[in-house]
Amino acid sequence: AKVSSALCTRKCLLVIGCLLLLLCGGWLLGTMFWLHGPSSQQPHRPPPPVPGRAANSTAQTPVNDSAAASRREACGRTPEAWRFDCYPERTVVVTRELCEARNCCFIPAAAPPASKKRHQNGIPWCFYPADFPSYSLASLDKTLLGQKGSLVKEVKTYYPGDILTVEVETRYETDSRLHVRITDPSSSRFEVPIPVPAATKKAENPDYAVEFSKQPFGLIVTRRSTGTVILNTTVAPLFYADQFLQFSTSLPSPFIYGLGEHRSTFLHDVQWNTLTMWARDVPPMTNLYGVHPFYLSMEEGGTAHGFFLLNSNAMDVALQPAPALTWRTIGGILDFYVFVGPDPGSVIQQYLEVIGNPAMPIYWALGYHLCRWGYNTSNSTWEVVKSLRNSGIPQDAQWNDIDYMEHFMDFTFDSAKFGTLPDMVQDLHAHGQRYVMILDPGISSTQPEGSYWPFDEGLKRGVFIKDAEGKTLIGKVWPGLTAYPDFSDEVTHEWWYDNLRRFHDKVPFDGLWIDMNEPSNFLDGSTNGCPENSIEHPPYTPGVLGDLLRAKTVCATAQQKLSLHYNVHSLYGLMEAQASRIVAKRPFVISRSTFPSQGMYSGHWLGDNRSQWKDLYTSIAGILTFNLLGIPLVGADICGFSEEPQEELCVRWTQLGAFYPFTRNHNAIDMQPQDPTAFSPLARTAMKQALLLRYSLFPVLYTLFHHAHLHGHTVARPLMFEFPKDVQTYAIDKQFLWGKSLLVTPVVDPGVDQVVGYFPESLWYDFYTVRPDFPGDSVRSKGEKLQLAAPLDKINLHLREGSVIATQTPNLTLWVSSGQPLHLLSALSDDGSAGGDLFWDDGESIDTYESEQYAYILAVSPQKVMTSQVLHNHTEATFIPVASASFYGVKEKPSQVLVNSQDATFNYSDNQVSLGRIESPQNGNTEGKAVRTKCFKG
Ligand SMILES: *[C@@H]1O[C@H](CO)[C@@H](O)[C@H](O)[C@H]1NC(C)=O
Ligand SMILES: *[C@@H]1O[C@H](CO)[C@@H](O)[C@H](O)[C@H]1NC(C)=O
Ligand SMILES: *[C@@H]1O[C@H](CO)[C@@H](O)[C@H](O)[C@H]1NC(C)=O
Ligand SMILES: *[C@@H]1O[C@H](CO)[C@@H](O)[C@H](O)[C@H]1NC(C)=O
Ligand SMILES: *[C@@H]1O[C@H](CO)[C@@H](O)[C@H](O)[C@H]1NC(C)=O
Ligand SMILES: *[C@@H]1O[C@H](CO)[C@@H](O)[C@H](O)[C@H]1NC(C)=O
C-alpha cells in the first residue's frame, strides 16, 4: 500500500492545560511506587586484595599461631558484600573445622539470615581468602580471532577431578560480541549442541577490551567507550574440576535481569539470592521448568551488556550485593559470550544472533486461546466454543488438556467421552478456528502387546531413554508406567512424527501443547531406582528442589543418544519442540520446558499458577523475562490455573492477558468454569472488550513479531528498553510496552478503580481518545507517576508520540478480522511528525520473509506531512485496503483534508482529525497507487 497524507494546523495550545489534572493525581502516589531505587547502590569496584596483616579480626576464637592469626585478621577485612561462598553445600551446617579444612575464612554472621527462603542464604560464614589457590596464566598467544592461553594450578581443590591445566580462548567475534571458552585440552567434555555462529575474522573495532590478571588468573572485560568494567573474574577463584566448575564476577550495578526460569520480580534481587537452574516441574519458588543462563545488566549512564553461559548442566547462579555473581555448574565446559549492546535492546539482538531469532508465529497463534483441564467430554468442550460464539467473544483456538485421552495415553482419544472430538475439530475449522491438544512425553509401557503402536513401535526402533544398564528406563506419569522418548536421537524424531501423523489422520489438530517435558516423573529416577554413584550424587549438588538431580525426573545416569541425562536433562523440552512439527505451515507449539534457542521452535506458557492477584502481577515479570530470552510468544494462564476463579480477578487478568503476546485462559480440573461466558454480563462484556481490543491491534502485534523474527526485537517490552537512561524504569514490572509505542498499564490489585503508572519522559496519548465512552487526552510527562482512572471495564493504554499504528475492526476470529480494512492511527509529536510500519503476508506459510512473499510498508510523517512507502510489495497486501485514518495531536481544526489530492470529509474534535472512509478511487488498497492525504492551512 502506498499511502501518504499531509496535515496542517494553525495554532497550538490547549493540550498541556488538559493534562495538569492527571499530573497532580500522579504526584500524590509518586513516592509509593518506586521500590528498587538506585539509592542503595553499593560500591561497584572490588575491594583491594587483603594484605597479610591488617586490622583486628572479628573472629571470637583466640588464636595461638601468628600465621593463622594474621590470616583471620585478613579474613575479617573482606567486606561482607564481597564474601564469596566457599561452602555452598546446603545440607551441611558449616563449622570452623569444615571451613578451615577448605582453607577458607570462617566468620559466622551475627544474625541468621532474615529470610528463611530457600534461595536466600545470607552472608556466607565460610568464604574464600584472597590468597586461595587458583589458576595462573602460564602463557598467552595471539590467534586469528583473539588469544589463547594456558591456565595452570598447583594445588588441588577440595573437589575431586581437578583439571590442573586448562585452556582459555578468547574470540573477538564481532564489535559487540566476545566469545570465551575455557576447556580441558587433554580430554573432550560435554558441549551443548545448539548451533552458534562461527566467526572467521577478528572484530576490527570492538567496543570491549580484554585484560588478564595473571596470578591469580582473572579475565577483565571493559567497555571501551566508557571504561566500565563489565566482567572481572579476579574477584574469586576459578574452579575447573570434573563436576564442579565455578567462577565469579563483579557486576557494574545491581540492575540485573534474565536468568530464567524463576518466578520473581523482573529485576532480580542481589541480596544473597541464589537462582538454581535445572528443569523441574514444581512451581513456584524453586528451579522451574526452563533453563536460561543469560543475564542482562545495566551500567551507569544507561548502557547495558549481556552475558550468556552456554552450559546445560545443573547450576546455581549466586547473586550478592557487592554486586557480584557466581556461576557454579557441575559439568560441561565454560563457554560464554559477552554482549556489549550498548543499549538493552541491542544486547538482546546480539544474544539472539548467537542462539537464534524466534520463529514467526502462525497468525492465529496471536488470537484468543481457551483451555481447561476437565471439560471431561468433547461435547462440553464444544458447548463452550459455541457459547463464546453466541456471546460474540473472539476465539481463535480451543484446547484440550489430558482428559481427552484414553487413560491419559498420547496419540489416543477417549472414544466414549470424546467421541465427537473429530466433529468438533471439523466445526472449529469451518468457523476459521483451530484445535490444539496436549501431549506429554511419557509413553505408556504397560499396554498389551500389539495394542498400543506408539510404545510397540518405539521399542522396535529403540527410541526410548535407557537406564544405566541399557534397559528401557521406566518412570511414572499420568498414564501410569511410562518410557521416555529420547529426543536427542534423530530416529526418535521420525517415530514422533509418525505418531503425530497417524493421530492427525483421526483428529486434524492444528497445534501442540507439549507439557511435562522437564521431563517430569512421579517417581524419583525410575521404577528400579538409580545407581548410587557420582553422577547421581555429584560432589556438589546445586540447590535443586528435592536435593537430588533425579528428584521427580529420570535418573541422571540414564543414557541418551547424545550423552548422559546428567548433561542433557535441561535440553529435553528444546529437543521435543524440535521434533514437534507436522503440517507444512508454521508450526504452533507451546512448551513448558525451554532452553536457549527454544524461540525458533516454540512458544512458552509460564506454567501452573493460581487464581490470585500475586500471580497476576508476577506474570508480567515472566512475560518480560521470556522476551529477553528470545521466546516472545509467551503468556500465563489467564484467570489462574489452580484455585477457584474470582470474577474481578478474572476480568483484570483478561485485560492484562489481552496484552500477553500469547493469550490463553486455562483452568484446573474440578474448578468452576472461568471462560468469559461463565461470568456476569458485566464481567463478560469487559472481557469481550479487552479481547476485541487485542484483535483490533493484530496488525501491530503481527508486525512486532516480524521484527522479533527478523531482528531479535522484544514484543512485550520493558519500559527500560525504550528509556534506558531513566533509572526509574529499571524495576518496573507492573507496566510494559508493546514494541516502542503502546504502553500498557494494567490493574494488578483488587477493589480499585484507579491505577498508578509511571510515564517516562514523552508525550503519551490516551488510546481511547477516539472512543466517546472513554474521553481521554494526551499527557506530557517529564518522567512521572500518574494516577489513572481504571473502572472495571478499562485497561489503560497509551500511545507514545511519534508513532503510526494500523488497527482493524475486530471480529470473532483473526481469520475474519485480519481481512478487514486498516485504520491508520497517528500520534503526532509536537512538530507534527510520526512513523510506523506494517508487515503483512498470508499469515501461515513458512519463511515468507525469506522467500519474499510479504509486504512491508513504512509510514512516516516528518513535519506535518505523512507519506508512506511500500518497501516490499506482495499480493497479500492488496487484500487489506486502508479505510480510514486518525491523527492525534492536531491542535487546531484544519480547513481542508485531501486524500490523494481530492477533498476528503473529516471530523475534528479534541485535537484529532478522523477521516471516515477514504473514498479515493485508489482507496489505499495497494494497487500500486499512492493515496495522498493532504490538508491546507485555512
Ligand atoms: C587490636 O587489638 C589490640 C589488642 O586487643 C588493641 O590494642 C588494638 O587497639 C586493636 N586494634 C584495632 C585497629 O582495633
Ligand atoms: C593452639 O593450637 C593448638 C594446636 O594447633 C590447639 O590444640 C590449641 O587448642 C590452641 N590453643 C588455643 C588457646 O586456641
Ligand atoms: C578486578 O578484581 C580484582 C580483585 O578484586 C581487583 O583487585 C581489581 O582491581 C579489579 N580490576 C578492575 C579493573 O576493576
Ligand atoms: C455428544 O453429542 C452427540 C451429538 O449430540 C451425542 O450423540 C453423543 O451421545 C454425545 N456424547 C456424550 C458423551 O455426551
Ligand atoms: C463480525 O463481522 C460480521 C460481518 O461483518 C458482523 O456482522 C459481526 O457483527 C462482527 N462481529 C463482531 C464481534 O464484531
Ligand atoms: C503490489 O503488488 C500488486 C500485486 O502483485 C500490484 O498490483 C501492485 O502494482 C504492486 N504495487 C506496488 C506499489 O508495487
From TrEMBL:
Gene name per UniProt: gaa2
Q: Name one GO molecular function term.
A: carbohydrate binding
Q: What is its main location?
A: membrane
P-type domain ranges (all copies): 73-130
Composition bias, Polar residues: 55-64, 916-926
Q: Name a Pfam family for this protein.
A: Gal_mutarotas_2
Look up the signal peptide feature and give its range.
Answer: none
Mark the transmembrane ranges: 12-35
Q: Where in the cell is it found?
A: Membrane
Biological classification of the source: Eukaryota, Metazoa, Chordata, Craniata, Vertebrata
Keyword DNA-binding listed: no
Q: Which UniProt keywords apply?
A: Disulfide bond, Glycoprotein, Glycosidase, Hydrolase, Membrane, Transmembrane, Transmembrane helix
UniProt protein name: Si:ch73-12o23.1
Q: Which family does it belong to?
A: Belongs to the glycosyl hydrolase 31 family.
Q: Mind telling me which GO cellular component terms the entry cites?
A: membrane
Instruction: Enumerate the residue ranges of region (Disordered).
Output: 40-70, 916-938
